[in-house]
Amino acid sequence: MAGRVAPLEHDLPEHLAGQWEQLMVLKWHEVIYRLTEDGLPEPAAAVRDFLLFMMLKGVENDRSCRLSVPAHIDEVWHSVLVDPVLYMSLSRIVGIEPVIPYEPMGEYDSDEAKMRRWQAALDKFAELYGRPYTHNYCGGQVAARHQDNYVLTQPPTRCGPARPDAMVEDLKYGVRLAEGIPVVKQRLLFCGTELENCRTVSDYDMQDGAIIHLILILRRYT
């Protein structure tokens, strides 16, 4: 149903099932609506991954932002933060009060430290739930939704160090950290080809020092 969090695709660990039921009582429809307006594909699935990640932070008692989120979860997090009552309720349910700490930029972290935090989150998520993030965040869907709205081309951007198996989504998250541009507002092109979030760096044969072009996606108002 529209406005509802996507249903779980696997059973939760028994000790987290009660938390999930409490989280489902909260009102997520406005968050999903905002994400839809911002052009995030499958917002209900993204919110599901976000909530699973918040439960992981509670299990790990992560009050110092040791675990760093992928781009689609960060987009949801931004949307939830604008509703303090909802955010405080979420924090209480997962057991981190008064609120779950949020470190938006990590500007003083090295690239290596950021990568370690992203990988730690991925490993812990898979360890707790037995699977990785399930949201299908594929750039082609955003491109179709914003067709003909590409109005501003930035100069070439040099990406930070990335492993061959890093996702394009991770590159966009790095651009966000460096430039402050939301992931859903980015198109990245390499050698004339638009990069899809659901593919890896090695899929495009990008080498160290590769230069990509960033195109901003601006919503059309009439």
Automatic annotation (TrEMBL):
A Pfam family per the record: ubiquitin
Domain Ubiquitin-like: 163-216
Database matches in CDD domains: Ubl_ubiquitin_like
Superkingdom, taxonomy of origin: Eukaryota
SUPFAM superfamilies linked: Ubiquitin-like
InterPro entries cross-referenced by the UniProt entry: Ubiquitin-like_dom (IPR000626), Ubiquitin-like_domsf (IPR029071), Ubiquitin_dom (IPR019956)
Name of the protein this chain belongs to: Ubiquitin-like domain-containing protein
Lineage, top ranks: Eukaryota, Sar, Alveolata, Colpodellida, Vitrellaceae
